[in-house]
Amino acid sequence: MQTIFSLSKLLLYPSVWIFIGFLVACLLSWTTRCSPAVRLILSLSVMLFYGFSTRPLEQALVRPLETHHRPSITLPVEHDAIVLFVNDYPRLPPFTGRPTIIGTRTADLLMCGINYVRSGGVRKIVLAEGAPRLLSSQDTGGGVLQEWAIALGYPKDALIVNDKGIATHERVQAIRLLLGSANRILLIDSAMHLTRSAGTFTKAGFTVTAIPCDYSLALARPWDFYDFIPSGSTLETSSEAIYEYFGLLAYWLRGFV
Questions:
Q1: Could you report the per-residue pLDDT of 164-223, keeping only the tens digit for each?
Q2: Euclidean distance between CA atoms 211 and 196, whole angstroms
Q3: Do 212 and 69 form a contact (C-beta atoms < 8 A)?
Q4: Measuring CA to CA, which residue among 174, 143, 180 is closest to residue 159?
Q5: Dist. CA 218–CA 221, nearest whole Å
Q6: Torsion sign over Cα 135, 141, 142, 145
Q7: Could you tell me if 86 and 194 are in contact, meaning their C-beta atoms sit under 8 angstroms apart?
Q8: Residue among 257, 123, 105, 256 nearest 186 (CA)
Q9: Which end of the chain is more exposed for a tag (fewer CB within 10 A), N or C?
Q10: 3-state secondary structure the chain
Q11: CB 125 within 8 A of CB 154
Q12: Residue 26 pairs with which residues in a beta bridge?
């Protein structure tokens, strides 16, 4: 009975219905007088959607990005500053007037960085959020991020907030100006984005110790039946990985990494 109930829940997933729709359309194209071009497009759509929304291809895409840098076994001590490269913005929950970082990747990043801050000897900690896109800087950004950092135990007198630039290379250049002659940094970033951000900081003249955080990939999780069922969250992770690959290519072509 439990197995039947678990299988019936699959029909509640929009990704499953989208895949079924593609599959039915593809089968109909091969049983009716459709043009070869239509058959090819529908067949590719089925394969691409299934591949990007299931675990095998997701892992193949994400693994090289998230295992490129490994966390240090011991806490690094020789650095001039810690840079937390924030790629998520505070949220404004319903029925409240105050943004929060709870439930965002920013919270994971701050929690990841606190151990390195507590190691001592840190005079500069850069919260590199960058410029807000949709909401004003009064509602999100530096103020909210700084308040949460202090609440978690970050020293107030060492915090520097960067709110300049949106793209990675723009924010790196802004941080270059903020830090001046400080060159040795601990860079804490999401594991998927760390390859691009660490490369950009290195190209800008920094000596970087890269600290991966906020992993999307769970290598130790055992495989099961649901890993081969189309999933919206898996599709989202695959999309982020593809975005990073194109970002790395674009940065390499432009000389940013």
A1: 878 899 999 999 988 888 889 999 999 999 999 999 999 999 999 999 988 888 767 888
A2: 13
A3: yes
A4: 143
A5: 6
A6: positive
A7: no
A8: 123
A9: N
A10: CHHHHHHHHHHHCHHHHHHHHHHHHHHHHHHCCCCHHHHHHHHHHHHHHHHHCCHHHHHHHHHHHHCCCCCCCCCCCCCCEEEEECCCCCECCCCCCCCECCCCHHHHHHHHHHHHHCCCCCCCEEEECCCCCCCCCCCCCHHHHHHHHHHCCCCHHHEEEECCCCCHHHHHHHHHHHHCCCCEEEEEEEHHHHHHHHHHHHHCCCEEEEEEECCCCCCCCCCCHHHHCCCHHHHHHHHHHHHHHHHHHHHHHHCCC
A11: yes
A12: none
Looking at residue 6, what is its pLDDT?
62
**What is the rounded CA–CA span in Å between residue 257 and residue 240?**
19
b/e burial code for range 108-142 (CB count within 10 A of at least 16 → b): bbbebbeebbeeeebebbbbbbbebeeeeeebbbb
Give the predicted TM-score (pTM) of the model. 0.86
Would you put residue 153 in left (φ > 0), alpha (ψ -120 to 50) or beta? left
- Residue written as tokens 């920094």? 206
Would you state the structure tokens that stand for residue 251, as one six-digit string?
Answer: 């940065």
Phi, psi at 223, each rounded to 5°:
-75, 150
Query: Residue 160 is encoded by which pair of tokens?
Result: 């520097």
Q: Are 203 and 178 in contact (CB under 8 A)?
A: no
